Prior knowledge:
Order of helices and strands: HHHEEEEHEEHEHHH
CATH superfamily of the largest domain: Electron Transport, Fmn-binding Protein, Chain A
Shape: globular
Helix content: 25-40%
Radius of gyration: 21 Å
Strand content: 15-25%
CATH architecture of the largest domain: Roll
Mean pLDDT: 95
Distance between the termini: 37 Å
Amino acid sequence: MTKPDVLNTDFILRDEAELRQLFAPTHDTAIKKCLNYLDKHARAFIERSPFICIGTQSSDGAADVSPRGDPPGFVKVHDDRTLLIPDRPGNNRLDTLTNIMTNGHVGLLFIVPGFDDTLRVNGTAVITRDPDLLVHMAVNDRTPTVAIAISVDEVFIHCAKAFRRSKLWSPDAQQDRGDVPSLMNIILDQTTGAPKDPEQLAKLDEDLEAEYRQTMY
C-alpha cells in the first residue's frame, strides 16, 4: 500500500491503541445498538430505501464501493439474517460480483431520501442464480441474471451528523450539474478525447440518455 508523498511520516498513526488515545471512549449505547439480525426497525428502513452503497474487497484487499439503486424496497429481506440484492444491467465490469466471489465480506449503507440517519449492515455475501429467488426481483418482466445474497453479521442505525454537515438534502445546497462537463465529455476526455464540436457532443449525450432508457433493466 502506497502512502501520499505529502504526508509527514512522523504523524502517521500505526496502531489502534495510539489512535484511541486521541478520542474519548466509545459510548455504551453505540456498542449496544449493534444487532446481529434484522429487527423491525431495520426492516422498515430497508423497505423505504431506494439506494445503497456496497463495499467489497478483492482477494488481495483492494477496496471498492459501488452504488445500487431501484424502487424503495428493492433489497429483499428474506429472513431476519438474510438479504437479497438484485444485480441490474451495468457496464459489466463486475467489480462487486468478482470481489464477492473471492472475498465475501461486505458492508452496506442504506440511504432514504430525506432521512439524515442511515442504516449500516455488515455480513458475508455469495452470488446466486437461483430462479426461485430471482423471479421475485423482476422489473418490467426482466429478471436479473444473478443476485447478491448476504448473511447478516451486524446491523445498526448510523447517526445523522454526516448528512447534516453535508446538507445533502437541503435545496439550498443542491449544485447545478451543468456547471461541469457531461458524463460523456468526461469519459471521452479521459480516453479517446472529447469532440470539439458542441453539436456532436450533444448528440453523444442524447445517445447516452436513450441507452439509459433502454437498458435500465
